[in-house]
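Task: sequence design from structure.
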């Protein structure tokens, strides 16, 4: 299940806007300020293709423990008794109100599954399918599962069938011994990027691990949603899941006995990398994560303080500690700007020390760019965005690319570099159409960023 992103960029910009003075938030449904922007039509939608994925970079001993915790627990913490997988070719088809971008995105991720995970997977083209991707209006999906952006269910082939069976044992992952069919439910009325992100995570979970772990720095199997597309670690987990040494119905102990030899064969580089298994994350910390991004500012800060306290008490030095500082920084924004900046700096320091943490640090750079833009520190904005944009491109995060480019364009314009600003802004708009979907949402994001630059220019 893919959750709505707790790392949402728009929320951070709104907090910076709220905390930078008494000026009202701009009307974001109209044309936004900036050269060449206002009433002109937007450029063609941009998209990713041919970007090399981030490889698996951690020790096999650490990743063996990750594999077991991904495979034998649900996201709720409920244990799964046995390994389950498809025991044969996997065929996929789409149904419902399929968005225009979906077929191409599905084709790209299927090719990656075949090439990187060694899976026998293909589009069904009208034939019987093991996995059906059913596109439905977001409102219908929210009524069924309010907390999910998209989700996967076993033993059904349509949304209507799921609604009839959703309280039965037939759609309980813990009750199945082998996977024969599954359905993935994705919003039909969303941006190309969210369609792609849902296809990546939900297809991977339909075929492979069902759990998400906050301790993973290099995976989409993590509810922090920093990684938008499947990584080298994720493909290694899928390749391991379908290793010939394993089969449906094996217990955790049976899989654990075979795992070291499987990983040594599939990932020999990981044998020489130091590292040890990490402890499970307490449910109290997981519960506090979502609360730290919702509710009143006082409640958000209280929950974020809980995250930091638990992380320190556990002795963590990994991405969970960094995320705790990140959450507290977000909660402090608008009321304690110096405290927020200090927390962002500490989160970025930790993430930059971790394999797979570069994209997390790039998100921090986006937040720091927003602060700098609103403070009129335009050279600092250019420095931060120039560092973060290549990372966002490599990790195929269109929303992050678009926001960083927009901030850089405003800073370039403010420093008199008009031609560069114009080119950068057009590039940003093309990525924004991919990331945010509707023209209104694109213009809203650009209006927010332009408002920050306007405040910075006024001093």
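Answer:
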């Amino acid at each position: 299940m893919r959750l709505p992103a707790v790392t949402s960029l728009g929320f951070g910009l709104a907090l910076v806007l709220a905390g930078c003075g008494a000026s009202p938030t701009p009307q974001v449904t109209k044309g936004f300020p900036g050269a060449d922007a206002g009433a002109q039509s937007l450029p063609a939608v941009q998209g990713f293709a041919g970007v090399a994925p981030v490889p698996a970079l951690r020790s096999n001993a650490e990743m063996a423990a990750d594999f077991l915790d991904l495979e034998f627990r649900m996201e709720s913490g409920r244990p799964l008794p046995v390994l389950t997988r498809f025991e044969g070719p996997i065929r996929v088809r789409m149904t419902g109100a399929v968005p225009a971008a979906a077929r191409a995105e599905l084709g790209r991720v299927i090719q990656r599954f075949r090439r990187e995970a060694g899976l026998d997977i293909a589009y069904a083209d009208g034939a019987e399918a093991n996995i059906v991707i059913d596109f439905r209006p977001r409102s219908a999906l929210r009524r069924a599962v309010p907390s999910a952006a998209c989700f996967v269910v076993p033993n059904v082939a349509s949304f209507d069938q799921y609604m009839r069976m959703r309280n039965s044992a037939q759609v309980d992952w813990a009750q199945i011994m082998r996977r024969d069919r599954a359905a993935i439910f994705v919003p039909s009325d969303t941006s190309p990027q969210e369609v792609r992100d849902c296809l990546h995570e939900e297809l991977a979970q339909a075929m492979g691990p069902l759990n998400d772990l906050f301790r993973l720095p290099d995976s989409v199997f993590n509810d922090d949603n920093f990684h938008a597309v499947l990584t080298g670690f994720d493909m290694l987990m899928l390749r391991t899941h379908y290793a010939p040494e394993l089969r449906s119905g094996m217990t955790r102990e049976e899989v654990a006995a075979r795992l070291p030899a499987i990983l040594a064969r599939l990932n020999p580089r990981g044998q020489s990398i130091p590292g040890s298994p990490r402890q499970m994350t307490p449910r109290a910390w997981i519960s506090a994560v979502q609360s730290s991004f919702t509710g009143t500012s006082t409640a958000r800060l209280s929950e974020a303080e809980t995250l930091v306290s638990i992380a320190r008490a556990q002795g963590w030095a990994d991405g969970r500690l960094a995320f705790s500082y990140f959450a507290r920084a977000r909660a402090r924004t608008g009321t304690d700007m110096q405290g927020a900046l200090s927390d962002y700096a500490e989160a970025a320091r930790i993430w930059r020390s971790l394999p797979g943490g570069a994209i997390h640090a790039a998100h921090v750079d986006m937040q720091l760019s927003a602060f700098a833009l609103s403070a009129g520190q335009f050279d600092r904005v250019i420095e931060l965005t120039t560092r973060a944009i290549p990372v966002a491109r490599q990790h195929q995060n269109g929303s992050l690319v678009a926001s960083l480019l927009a901030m850089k364009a405003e800073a370039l314009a403010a420093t008199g570099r008009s031609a560069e600003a114009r080119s950068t802004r057009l590039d940003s708009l093309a990525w924004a159409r991919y990331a945010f979907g509707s023209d209104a949402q694109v213009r809203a994001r650009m209006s927010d960023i332009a408002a920050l630059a306007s405040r910075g220019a006024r001093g």
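Residues 212 and 222 are 5 Å apart (CA to CA).
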